[in-house]
Amino acid sequence: MPFQKVEPEKLSHSVVRQIEGLILRGILRPGERLPAERDLAERLGVSRPSLREAVAELQEAGLLTTRAGAGIFVAEVLGSAFSPALIRLFARHDEAVFDYLAFRRDLEALAAERAARLASDTDLKVIDTIFAKMEAAHQKRDPADEARLDAEFHMAIIEASHNVIMLHMMRSMFDLLRQGVFYNRQVIFRQKTTRGTLLDQHRAIRDALLARDPAAARAAVETHLAFVARALDDDRKSERNEAVARLRIAQEEGRG
In 3D, which of 245, 209, 243, 246 has the Cα closest to residue 224? Predict the structure, then answer.
């Protein structure tokens, strides 16, 4: 019979599986630096040669990368879900912006519903901490800081949903948002009439998650992203109206 003696697993293989799992679950993020070799070996309870062997295997797999004089980092494994040509097309058309928001509304509502059921106490503490920072940024009236924390808040919910496919897909989508491909989030936070409403909406999402109420969490996210879509639509219409007004003035001056 084709049975073979079971051999003990090499320590380096156990290290590979542990680091792979941390990357898969989003705990180790693209670009994140790993601890120094001695420290990491001690944390994992393995020898430095075993750790080096594991790191070499992960580098060959494209999951880790070494930077001379800087250390070992998680590779930029996310990339983009879209080709450069399609990204440029998205950036030029409002239709893509509103389809993107509709996509986010549907997916993040599901993520919030899952997070209300599946999030750990640590997940919820992270979400609550980010919201506290959002309140502080709101008082400082710093649109850039508010926009950054807004992205962190939404990604924390995705992470708390504990679906690794959703996590990595949405990280890729949010990277495009940070690049301003779909819209500039800071524009929304500059609008005085919307800043308070946005904070209240994030509070409603936070409260529903802390209460572990899936239906309320889903509804709060849907309400929030529908509001963002309306605010952006109003901003686009205002820009078009201003452009038309400027054109009319120029035409009148030309005739005069």
Answer: 209
Q: Tally the C-alpha atoms within 13 A of residue 74's C-alpha that lie toward its C-beta.
A: 20
User: CA separation (Å) from 52 to 39, 47, 57, 60?
Assistant: 13, 9, 9, 12
pLDDT per residue rounded down to tens, the chain (256 residues): 464 554 456 788 888 889 988 888 878 888 889 999 899 988 988 888 989 999 999 999 888 988 888 888 988 765 566 777 887 888 788 888 889 899 999 999 999 999 999 999 999 999 999 999 999 998 988 888 888 899 899 999 999 999 988 888 888 888 777 777 677 776 777 766 688 899 999 999 999 999 999 999 999 999 999 998 888 887 666 666 555 556 566 556 666 5
CA distances in angstroms from 173 to 148, 161, 249, listed in the order given: 15, 17, 41
Q: How far apart are CA 223 and CA 96, in angstroms?
A: 20
Angle between helix 143-160 and 94-118 (nearest 10) = 50
Q: How many CA atoms lie within 13 A of 249 on its CB side?
A: 6
d(CA 10, CA 226): 52
**In 3-state terms, the chain is what percent helix, strand and coil (to 5)?**
75, 5, 25
Task: Report yes or no: 189 and 141 within 8 Å, Cβ to Cβ.
Answer: no
C-alpha to C-alpha distance for 202 and 144, rounded to whole angstroms: 17
Helix (H) or strand (E) holding 68: none
Strands 71-74 and 64-67: antiparallel
pTM of the predicted model, to two decimals?
0.74
